[in-house]
Amino acid sequence: MSQRTDYLSWEDYFMATALLTSQRSKDPVTQVGACIVDKDNLILAVGYNGFPRNCNDEEFPWCKDKENPFNDKKMYVVHAEANAILNKNSANLTGALLYTTLFPCNECTKIIIQSGIKEVIYISDKHHEKPTYHASKRMLDAVGIKHRRYTPTKKKIVLDFDLFAGEEETIDLSKLKITLDK
């Protein structure tokens, strides 16, 4: 018997991890996830956009309010990239890769630079026209941190939990079905 050929590439795996992590966000508009990986392909940290620890999700706003900045989520939300860096399992992120679902803002870019991350891989750059994102690219370029858009090798990755919804107390991993579309 030969080995499987439909397994995930490292890049697909790490970006899928960032995407899955983004689903923890309670933001009703934008869910962002990040995954930091070392040179040995070990996940060092994950993070998603949300309020700081112990800040009740029901007490702080999830909307944007230009008229009253104290009712604007931007005043309170910690971005996914910053959360991942703060959640790290390693004392040192020097040389690590950051996979993120949205190109980082200028504030997160400052933290990325300070942490020693060497490359940023992202899916979306939907805010590329905004000055804060121009500043991000300028800073990354100035310090030699690579940044590039992620190109998936699979179109879709589907995790089907229903396959495990039997009466058994143990899960048979051989029944796991992951659909990988090219």
In a nutshell, what does this entry contain?
With 182 residues, the protein is an alpha/beta fold.
How would you characterize this protein structure?
- The protein has 182 residues and is of the alpha/beta class.
- The chain has four helices and seven strands.
- The chain has helices at 10-22, 80-86, 106-115, 131-143; strands at 33-37, 43-48, 97-102, 119-124, 146-149, 156-159, 178-181.
- The strands form two sheets. Strands 2-1-3-4-5 form a five-stranded mixed beta sheet. Strands 6-7 form a two-stranded antiparallel sheet.
- It starts with 9 loop residues before the first helix and ends with a strand.
- The mean pLDDT is 90.
Structural class: alpha/beta
User: Ends: how far apart?
Assistant: 24 Å
Alpha plus pi helix count: 4
Calculate the mean pLDDT score and round it.
90
| Largest sheet descriptor | 5 strands, mixed
Helix fraction, binned, reads 10-25%
Spans of at least 5 consecutive residues whose pLDDT stays below 50 are none
Shape: globular
Strand order of the biggest β-sheet: 2-1-3-4-5
Cα Rg: 18 Å
Q: What is the strand content?
A: 15-25%
Give the helices and strands as they follow along the chain. HEEHEHEHEEE
Number of strands: 7
Give the helix/strand layout.
Elements: H1 10-22, E1 33-37, E2 43-48, H2 80-86, E3 97-102, H3 106-115, E4 119-124, H4 131-143, E5 146-149, E6 156-159, E7 178-181
Parallel strand pairs: 3-4, 4-5
Antiparallel strand pairs: 1-2, 1-3, 6-7
